[in-house]
Amino acid sequence: MTLLELDGITVQYGTLTAVDDLSLSVERGELLCLLGPSGCGKSTTLRTIAGFERPDAGRVRLGGGDTPTDVTGTLPNDRDTAMVFQDWALFPNKTVRENVAFGLKMDGTPETDRRARADEMLSLVEMTDHADNDPTQLSGGQKQRVALARSLAVDPTLLLLDEPLSNLDRRLREDMQLELKSIHERLETTMVYVTHDQDEAFTLADRIAVVNDGRVEQVGPPASVYTDPETLFVESFLGTTNLVDCTVRRARAPAETADAQVADGGRVALETPLAEPLFAPATETAVSEDDHVTASLRPEQLSVGVARDGTVGDDGDGLATTGTVASRLHRGSQVRYEIEIGEETLVTHRRIADRLEVTEGERVAVGCPAESISFFDAEGRRLR
Amino acid sequence: MSTRVGRLRQAVGRRTGTGLLLPLLLFDLLVFVVPFGYLLRISLSERGGTQAYAEGTWSVEGYSYLLDPSNTIAETFVFTLGFGVVVTVVSVAVATLYAHAMWRADGSLRVVLVAGALVSMFTAIVVKLFAALLVYSPDGVLNGLLVSVGLLSEPLRLVNNGVGAVIGQLYIVVPYSILAVYAVLSTVDESLLEAARDLGANGPRAFVEVVVPHAVPGILVAGVISFTWSIGSYAAPLLLGSGSERTNGVLVSDLLLREFDWAAAAALAVVVTATVLGGLVVGRLVLSRREVSASG
Predict the structure, then answer these.
(1) A106 contact B CB<8A
(2) Taking the CA of residue A372 as centre, how many other CA atoms within 13 Å lie in the half-sphere pointing to its CB?
(3) For residue B184, what pLDDT is reported?
(4) With an 8 Å Cβ cutoff, are A103 and B214 in contact?
């Protein structure tokens, strides 16, 4: 059941368009991550949901009932949302318990009830011992817990989180991610979570909306967004990848085409700096000769082996070529390799236990199966 | 050369705290401690009769003059305290609203509001008071306007009385109060206001719950500035009051210049100064108690 609907939201600051005709819907009980680089409009989107920004166009619909009701013009204090701020925004003149009870005080809940509810929330985030403390004396992680308890205390229809963990160090951040996930599973509160950290998004999200330039590029479960990107932006923003600029040469001549590949649909040959052509799944109507196409080869999909007679076994349209190991770098639990192939350098990595028995300067065979290579046209759209 | 500079820098660095304080201490000594010592000494002299005071004598005649009911010093003192309270209350209220407007305003409106406070502050007191006289007198700008648009049938009496004295004094203290409150308000994190709104507080409620507690130190400072300055006020009651708005300041000047009774004048001045310092100490205690309770 849909709980929140953003319908063509546009937010402008003067001539700058922060959010550009953005539409999105959030289902009851899910945790949706708005993931994107800084300045992409994800925080502005969240503030629009909370009511701090009035959109220049579009509607915000939020619903407890069967159909969400239009809240576009509703003030933040009359919206059934609660926000966890990036800097937590705890009230410095109030104790931790008073902070958590603040929303209930505004509701007119009697003193004893709100005290009980505040203590319940503080025990949920394991901050009971600090109930009478001054929030300014808490550590970052503790402030974060109090801010979460304060927002949960009002039992919001929708909880909004604006990069709540970005001010914490990495270790604490990873612990808090898991804790947040377990709180979400226990309370089943619908959450919209803004982050620029893909690991955080993959850890927490039921669905990820990748935001770029004020628009949603792709929405879906984390695994499908990662493995099946619709745009070059999504492919390059999620994880590291090798992007290779190619140029369309010609559609493969029928004589060279194996029957199975004809059944696949059209393929076009690409001139690459890898000394080997690649074949993109596109018809001649989708691309034409001399068009630029970007091929993306994920480091974890590259196979590296001992070079025998210059090539590895050809597996059809995939990459099968040889290169030279240019560098080998130990990075904690992983080893990173740079392999020079033709005019291009491809990066791959292996866990320490699976590290490659190669030395710098050694000739190696490099391969990548065709189905693991994604191709994008000049506008960044995926070629399928 | 460079090592000498380095050594000099080290020496300065070590004593930076006291070194920076020194000019201030010297200034304080010359313009406050030494003159006040003279004042205290004169207040403890015999009253002169034909002279201003009897040099080299010791006496509490000046203070007993103050206590003599026939001299109605107590009435003046009570009037001055009441005057100070009225000015302080109005000044703090006006300053808090003005500072809040300044804080919430953006761009050019904020510039105009800040300039309004600063220009008034940089204007000489006498100039400011004569300007106020021009605005508020029965045939002045304000009354002229109100009568001509028909809001009033006859002009309000806003000068040459207690109201005039208060208005005049407000022109002196309000700019300082505004800056005192604004200095604190400008440190309020606006996301606190948003958090309060988000949790269901409407605008006024968020102001009371979040902004006011934060602004209390600034409001107290504004109160102290307004009160201590009004207790010693002289020019405003003299220029915009009638003869009957006699504050301590006016009385001291009368004793000095008309009665030629310096011992009594000095005694009154010492008592007024002691009252002001007492007020400051109380204000300071209230502030530090708040700080202790906030951090404890």
Answers:
(1) yes
(2) 16
(3) 92
(4) no
DSSP strands (E only) in B33-139: 46-47, 53-54
Candidates B184, B190, B199: best to mutate against A (most CBs of A within 10 A) is: B199
Average pLDDT of chain B to the nearest whole number: 87
Supply the pTM of this predicted model.
0.77
B190 — pLDDT class (breaks 50, 70, 90): confident
Tell whether A92 is within 8 A of chain B (Cβ).
yes
Cβ distance A89 to B191 less than 8 Å, yes or no, reads yes
Alpha carbon A136 to chain centroid distance? Answer: 32
Beta carbons within 10 angstroms of residue A113's beta carbon: 12
Q: How confident is the model at residue A54, as a pLDDT? A: 92
Judged by CB atoms closer than 8 Å, whether chains meet at B199 and A93 is answered as: no
Q: What are the start-end ranges of the H helices in chain A? A: 42-50, 96-107, 111-124, 140-153, 170-187, 198-204, 222-227, 232-237, 259-263
Topology of domain A2-230 in CATH is: Rossmann fold (3.40.50)
Spell out the domains of chain B, with CATH numbers in brackets.
50-295 (1.10.3720.10)
Chain A contact set for B217 (CB, 8 A): none
Alpha-carbon gap, residue B65 to A233, rounded angstroms: 89
Confirm or reject CATH 1.10.760.10 for domain A242-383, answering yes or no: no
**Residue ranges of chain A with per-residue pLDDT less than 50:** 253-264, 310-312
Distance from CA of A78 to the nearest CA of B (A): 6
- The answer to whether the CB atoms of B202 and A50 lie below 8 A apart is no
- The pLDDT assigned to A255 comes to 43
Among the partner residues B194, B209, B295, nearest to A89 by beta-carbon distance: B194
Residue B14, pLDDT score: 61
**Contact by Cβ (8 Å): B230, B83:** yes
Q: Do B197 and A76 touch (CB under 8 A)?
A: yes
Structure tokens, B219: 């409001």
CA dist B230 and B83 (Å) reads 7
pLDDT of residue B200: 92
Q: How many CB pairs under 8 A join A and B?
A: 67
Identify residue B52 by its one-letter amino acid code.
Answer: A
- Give the Cβ contact number of residue B277 at 10 Å: 11
Residue with tokens 């919206």: A79
**Nearby residues of A79 by Cβ (< 8 Å), 6 or more positions away:** A50, A51, A62, A71
Pick among A53, A81, A85, A159 to test the B interface (most B CBs inside 10 A): A85
For chain B, say whether A146 makes contact (Cβ under 8 Å).
no
Between B290 and B260, where is the model more confident? B260
Q: Looking at residues B147-174, what average pLDDT do you find?
A: 89
A280, A287 Cβ separation under 8 angstroms: yes
d(CA A198, CA A178): 15
The pLDDT tens digits for B277-291 are 887 888 788 877 766
Helix (H, G, I), strand (E, B) or coil at A106: helix
How far is the C-alpha of A35 from the C-alpha of B76, rounded, in Å? Answer: 71
Measured between CA atoms, how close is B158 to chain A, in angstroms? 42
- Per CATH, A2-230 and A242-383 having the same topology is answered no
Cβ <8 Å between A102 and B196: yes
So where are chain A's domains? Answer: 2-230, 242-383
